[in-house]
Amino acid sequence: MHGRPRPFLVAILIGLAAEALFLWGVTIPSKIVFDEIHYVPAARALLALSGPVNTEHPLLAKEFIAAGIALFGDNALGWRFFSTIAGAATVMGVFAILWLLYGRMRPAVMGAIFALLNFTIYIEARIAMIDPFLAVFTIWAIAAMLWAMRASPGKVWLRWIVAAILFGLAVAAKWAAVPYVAGAGIAFLAMRWRDATRAKRPLATLWSARDQPHWPGLAAFPALLAFGLVAIAAYFLTFAPAFFYHDQPLTLAELLPFQMTMYAEQTQVLPHHTYESSWWTWPLIIRPIWYFYEPSDGAMRGILMIGNPVIMWGGLVAVLACVWGWLRVRDPRLLFAAGLWIASYLIWVIIPKSLGFYYYYYLPSIFLCIALAAAFDHFGKDRFEHWDEGFAILAFGIAVYFFPIISAAALPGEQSFMHWMWFSSWP
Fold first, then answer.
1. What is the pLDDT of residues 62-85, one digit of tens each?
2. Packing angle of the helix pair 220-237, 156-173 (nearest 10 deg)
3. Do 319 and 297 form a contact (C-beta atoms < 8 A)?
4. pLDDT at residue 220 above 90?
5. Which residues, in sequence order, are CB contacts of 417 under 8 Å at separation 6+?
6. Rounded distance, CA 223 to CA 218, Å?
7. What CA–CA distance (Å, rounded) separates 274 from 225?
8. What is the DSSP secondary-structure string of 102-139?
9. CB atoms near residue 276 (< 10 Å)
10. Distance between the two ends of the chain, CA-based, in angstroms?
11. 351 three-class SS
12. CA nearest neighbour of 32 among 124, 133, 128
């Protein structure tokens, strides 16, 4: 007789394993890597409360980097420590989303394994950039929405508010999370509409708190109003340190105009960059990007920001399989798994950016892991039952192969990178 599943224990063990992996060798390179050149100085300025730096982005991610420097010093461990925590928590968040969707251990564990093997979380967890914090708060906000969806009427409001806070913090890390906040509200109303349709009730009942199978006890209008207000409050609270700058301290009167300054800086037309790439190239890994490739710490070392080809390309098949499976059986979990990737990718198709880079694909690459777990769970029956394990073994083999060029391991010489360059479009 099998024992009762223990998702909290499993999630913690997965998180500890991920944290150990991300921390190992995190101080190499010991010098500034890629966009750390923007965020580490900004974190130093925050720690000293000297004045505004890197004003095109909100403060939260840089506050975490500053906290690491305060704990461990102004060194590679200090810069990157909280990125490792964010990365490990992101892997745990993938587990949580799949557990809340399926209530079974296998798809949840397999999704977490795919996330660990997909390079992107590993690489982002070992660099002091803002994207690790964008991802962790977005992933856990989605998990909290699912958690609230299944709550009893007495607990739904607390969980709903937790989700709103997490979405607000995601935006406070990077504005790229804004569409996810809107998406959460749309998904809430869409699920209520589906429930009313299936129950053959008037569509107006979707606004009611009564007799709701999902988010029971939540009346739609006050829930969405509270959601927005709480998310906005969480976002603005992260600007608190800026009110104590020695130079150009922020004031309440300047808080909203400052948002327009940020918007202007984020939407300005930038000159072409060597590593820029178009959104349509990202799923196919046509143009990965070097975060680092130079001598450091006694050897030639490289960090290539790239996804695991097995998971990145296999994940696209999984998205199509989830859509196909949903069309056949109308399982909403399949639509959700596919929709996460589709929506997160479409953001970058629509969003007004003059330049694009492969690392913008970070969140969609995580959602591929959820689509893979969902597709294997749906189609992995009978003789296909263990295909998810075989897929994970193949992904692990590719991860071992690429590990030297994603982990800043010591390389024999300047041209060593050519060993991993599968295509002429790769750097």
1. 999 999 999 999 999 999 999 999
2. 40
3. no
4. yes
5. 293, 302, 304, 405, 411, 427
6. 6
7. 44
8. H--HHHHHHHHHHHHHSSHHHHHTTS--SHHHHHHHHH
9. 15
10. 53
11. coil
12. 128
To the nearest whole number, what is the mean pLDDT of the chain? 94
Structure tokens at 332: 């909403």
Other CB atoms within 10 Å distance of the CB of residue 286: 14
* Identity of the amino acid at 386: H
27-36, 73-82, 169-178, 191-200: lowest mean pLDDT where?
Answer: 191-200
**Model confidence at 1, in pLDDT bands (50, 70, 90)?**
very low
Q: How far apart are CA 116 and CA 252, in angstroms?
A: 42
Res. 2 pLDDT band, cuts 50 70 90: low
- pLDDT tens sequence across 304-326: 999 999 999 999 999 999 999 99
| Residues paired with 302 in a beta bridge | 293
Cis amide bond preceding 29, omega within 30: yes
Using CA atoms, how far apart are residues 159 and 161, in angstroms rounded to an integer?
5
Pairing mode, strands 289-296 and 299-305: antiparallel
Q: Does the pLDDT at position 127 exceed 90?
A: yes
- The three-class DSSP label of residue 268 is coil
Tokens of residue 23, six digits: 């921390």
Token output for 391: 């897929």
